[in-house]
Amino acid sequence: MPVMPSGEDPIQLQGIDYVELYVGNALQSAHFYQTIFGFTPVAHSGLETNSRDRKSIVMKQGECTLVLTAPLQADGPIAEHVHRHGDGLKDIAFRVEDVAAAFEKALAFGARSALPPTVFHDQWGTITRATVTTYGDTTHSFIQRNDFTGIFLPDYAPLERTPVATAGFACFDHFAVSLPRGEVQTWVDFYKRGFGFAQIHEEGIQTEYSAMSSIAVQDPAEKIRFVLIEPKDGKRRSQVEEFLQFYGSPGVQHIALETSDIIETISALRSRGLGLVTAPASYYDLLPSGSDLSQKTLARSRI
């Protein structure tokens, strides 16, 4: 298999186009992400747009585009995904200049095809999409929008926008991926070879009861980051092992969102009823000095 030096971009990624979650109920999920997280619903597809197997709602905030898709039928791949995993991340789509070239290069460096380059069109123009498989049931799509002026994708209709109080999220910061023991390096190599990512951080975490290790990789433009995590030996199961058991496969354990004012963002989320993990007091003693926010400020805000 050919090897692409890390830091070179064989696919010419332009950023994250959207992130798609498969959920049990798209309308309820959209209400949650709008009310709590401040995302604005901007487009939808479903029976009203001649989509017979799914209901999708597109949500936006800053540069984040989130697609919430629920099945309209009792069987089929969406229903099977929800039955196996519950609500979960299905697809991280990358915007590219040339889908066919990106797809072929990804295959050459070890990816497997889920959808070959396919053209979709409506009255607003055409887009080209291709999809490759990754860990578990998670996929990466390549999206080319050179000739499309619609709201999102073909056969999506705009939604009337109502004022939404945002939470200050600017973009997707990173995706944390839980993997079985011994698989992190495999997927680090996958992103290096096929996508030109570079390794930017490696860490081992050991507590009294559990342990895990992680490697972070990043695209050449420093816009897309994955933190790949696997469990290590410990007295008890780690959160990685718990995710693998209850989710039913490897996958994205969490999505991190970037904000320019974490104090205001956390305050907004709490005021809307979102429960947040409380850090122990010792956590703040371990924070590096010289950051924009003092340890006292973070501790006082329980961040």
TrEMBL record:
One of its GO terms (molecular function) is 4-hydroxyphenylpyruvate dioxygenase activity. GO terms for biological process: L-tyrosine catabolic process. CDD domains: HPPD_N_like. Keywords: Dioxygenase, Iron, Metal-binding, Oxidoreductase, Pyruvate, Repeat. Pfam families: Glyoxalase (PF00903). The keyword Metal-binding applies. SUPFAM superfamilies: Glyoxalase/Bleomycin resistance protein/Dihydroxybiphenyl dioxygenase. Residues 15-145, 171-303 form the VOC domain. This is 4-hydroxyphenylpyruvate dioxygenase. It comes from Dictyobacter vulcani.
